[in-house]
Write a structure and sequence with these properties.
With 67 residues, this protein is mainly beta. The protein is built from one helix and five strands; from the N terminus they run E-E-E-E-H-E. The chain has a single domain, classed as RNA polymerase II/Efflux pump adaptor protein, barrel-sandwich hybrid domain (OB fold (Dihydrolipoamide Acetyltransferase, E2P)), CATH 2.40.50.100. It has a five-stranded antiparallel beta sheet. InterPro entries: NA-bd_OB-fold, RNA_pol_Rpo8.
Length: 67
């Protein structure tokens, strides 16, 4: 999941990283949202208007991955 505030997580079990939205680029019907996590670049390709409106350049975000 992508969050703007620290989500609940289980230390040692869930992957949680914070970073910043560095840019958004339009690609035909999709928007590519670029997020920098400690130098690693995560690119989210979406056509969801809600997600595109939720995230803005230089927003601090948390990415959580869990089973």
């Amino acid at each position: 999941g992508i969050y703007k505030s620290l989500p609940p997580y289980v230390a040692g079990k869930d992957f949680l990283a914070h970073g910043y939205v560095i840019t958004k680029k339009k690609d035909n019907d999709y928007t590519n949202i670029y997020i920098s996590l400690w130098g690693y670049l995560v690119v989210i390709k979406t056509n969801e208007i809600r997600l595109n409106e939720y995230l803005n350049t230089m927003d601090k975000v948390y990415i959580k991955l869990w089973k």
